Amino acid sequence: MAIxxxxxxxxxxxxxxxxxxxxxxxxxxxxxxxxxxxxxxxVVDLAGVTFGDSTFLNTLIQAETLTDLRLTGVPPSIAxxxxxxxxDEILAVYPTCDAAQMALPHxxxxx
Length: 111
Known about the structure:
Number of helices: 4
Number of strands: 7
Order of helices and strands: EEEHEEHEHEH
Helix content: 25-40%
Strand order of the largest sheet: 1-2-4-6-7
Strand content: 25-35%
Low-confidence stretches: none
Structural class: alpha/beta
Distance between the termini: 29 Å
Oligomer: single chain
Shape: globular
Mean pLDDT: 89
């Protein structure tokens, strides 16, 4: 898993990869919590994620309650899970990391 500094707005980008399920979610969940505690906006590039179970979905929802979570690179299989579970109505998905980093804060977020 890699983390990029998000110049110009210094928004971090987390790049998890592989399966994110109950057995493997620990490192991703820990890193995401750390970033959420330290940053008002966090981008997660899901391009390398091959599978995500309910533990993965719960981790994203928890992060969304802590920060302005922005997802990018969502593979079709994960997008389908988001649609089936209505997560696509809760989570902010952007076409690219740059778009996620440059977007204005969500309505209701403090500036």
